[in-house]
Structures are given as structure tokens and as C-alpha cells.
């Protein structure tokens, strides 16, 4: 095999891999079309603000199906602001509001996607963005107060 033939085959292989990657991204976007954009942040008086790590948002009951739509696929530091009508996540890449009436449950977890912590170290907010999703947060420091405030929101927002 000549050098030119090897270079041509290598370039073809790289082009094929790039094409498959692009097709994969489009297919992933198509599968997440049912996920609505999160509600924007509003100026509300929070009853509790906590520093946290935003871990992921996944499809409900599918902790390996990370939602990338609308910028939800990026982990990072966030502030969790809880007010009487909902919870807000405020970070550099996203500002997300979850109204209390969209919260189905608040639970504890030990792992999701690529994060494993001590038992119960992650807070899971089960809510709706058109599709049912779970948002995973790790409160920095003691999370008892934030967890109880979020559970109270879920109880208040639950239909009678």
C-alpha cells in the first residue's frame, strides 16, 4: 500500500467517524424533542438559599438518560433558591425555575450517571418539563434544611 492510499483511507475513516458523530447528535436531539425549555428565573423572595452542585437532569426513572436539551446537560455549581411557589437553580449556564405544582416528589439518592456519593447524599427533584424528568442536586454542606423545604414544596404543590 502506498503512502497516498494510506492517507486517503485514513482521511475517509476520519470523515466517516465525524459523520456518525454528527448523526448521533441529531438523533439525540430528536429523542429529546418532548422536553420543554425550563421556565425562566423570576425575581422572588427566597425563604432559603443554598449552594449546591447541579449534577444532572435525566428522564424520570432512567438515571442514565441525561437530558442535554436546553443546556441541562452541563454539571456545575449552582445556587438553589426556594420560595413559597417553587425552586430556582441559578448558575452560569442556566437559570431554571421549577414551580411547586410541577414537582411530583423529592427524594434522596446515592448515585446518578457518573456520580456516586455517600448514602442519601444527592437530592432528586422529580418534576415535569413536558416530559417527566428527575433533577439531581448535591447541596454543599448540611442539606437537611434544603431537603425538608423541598419536600414541603412537593407536598404543597401536589394535587389534592
Largest sheet, in brief, is: 8 strands, antiparallel
Distance between the termini: 74 Å
Rg result: 20 Å
| Helix segment tally | 2
Residue windows where pLDDT falls under 50 for at least 5 positions: none
Q: What's the mean pLDDT score? A: 90
Shape: elongated
The run of helices and strands is HEEEEEEEEEEH
Description:
With 160 residues, this protein is an alpha+beta fold. It is 27% helix and 39% strand. The protein has 2 helices and 10 strands, in the order αββββββββββα. It has helices at residues 3-31, 144-157; strands spanning 48-59, 62-66, 76-83, 86-90, 95-99, 103-109, 111-112, 115-116, 122-129, 131-139. Strands 1, 2, 3, 4, 5, 6, 9 and 10 form an 8-stranded antiparallel β-sheet that branches. Strands 7-8 form a two-stranded antiparallel sheet. The protein is elongated, with a radius of gyration of 20 Å. The termini are far apart.
List the helices and strands and how they pair.
Elements lengths: L2 H29 L16 E12 L2 E5 L9 E8 L2 E5 L4 E5 L3 E7 L1 E2 L2 E2 L5 E8 L1 E9 L4 H14 L3
Antiparallel strand pairs: 1-2, 1-3, 1-10, 3-4, 4-5, 6-9, 7-8, 9-10
Keywords:
8-stranded antiparallel sheet; 160 residues; two-stranded antiparallel ribbon; alpha+beta
Gist of the model:
Helices cover 27% and strands 39% of the residues.
